[in-house]
Amino acid sequence: MSDGPQMHRLFFALWPDDALRHSIDEEAARIERELSPGGRRLNAARLHMTLQFLGDFASLPPALLDGACAAAAQIRVSPFALELDCAGSFRGSNVCWLGPTATPAGLQELWDSLGIALRQHEVPLRPAPAFSPHVTIQRNVRRHLPVTPIAPLSWPVHDFVLVDSQSGQPYRIIERWPLRR
């Protein structure tokens, strides 16, 4: 018996390649083993860095998808290097994450530009007070971690994606856009 229609969670993200995804997953396992935050580790296939969250929808509105894709197509940001060099947790959401000690200028520019373009195309966004770049590696942690240095994981960022997430299903990349000036 079905509980009704599956909700679609729609967001823009940075999507790690397979090698980086494996390295992030190995670091998540090390943190789980050595620092014992006591949460549930994410499946490696779900690892990503959210850029802009568009919301939850009973079905994907075609006008929203068209606007989101048009906004993404106008982004002009050069590829950049991102370094995941620390781990920590957010108290309010009880997640453990990997992230950069400092946000690279290219990443901030991508976040800002995408937000502006989405507003220009009248795509509603869930308001965020500030950008806090991170890759969630565990949910429901019981012990919070202070910001802790890790061996750096290099992430050469060449593109970004629009993702459709449905509970219990693999993430579906709707579209991918290369970074370019």
Automatic annotation (TrEMBL):
The keyword Cytoplasm does not apply. InterPro entries: Cyclic_Pdiesterase, RNA_CPDase. Gene3D superfamilies: Cyclic phosphodiesterase. SUPFAM superfamilies: LigT-like. Keywords: Hydrolase. Pfam families: 2_5_RNA_ligase2. The active site is at H48, H134. The keyword Magnesium does not apply. A motif (HXTX 2) lies at residues 134-137. It is an enzyme of class 3 (hydrolase). Its EC number is 3.1.4.58. It catalyses: a 3'-end 2',3'-cyclophospho-ribonucleotide-RNA + H2O = a 3'-end 2'-phospho-ribonucleotide-RNA + H(+). A motif (HXTX 1) lies at residues 48-51. Hydrolyzes RNA 2',3'-cyclic phosphodiester to an RNA 2'-phosphomonoester. Belongs to the 2H phosphoesterase superfamily. ThpR family. This is RNA 2',3'-cyclic phosphodiesterase. It comes from Lysobacter arenosi. The gene is thpR.
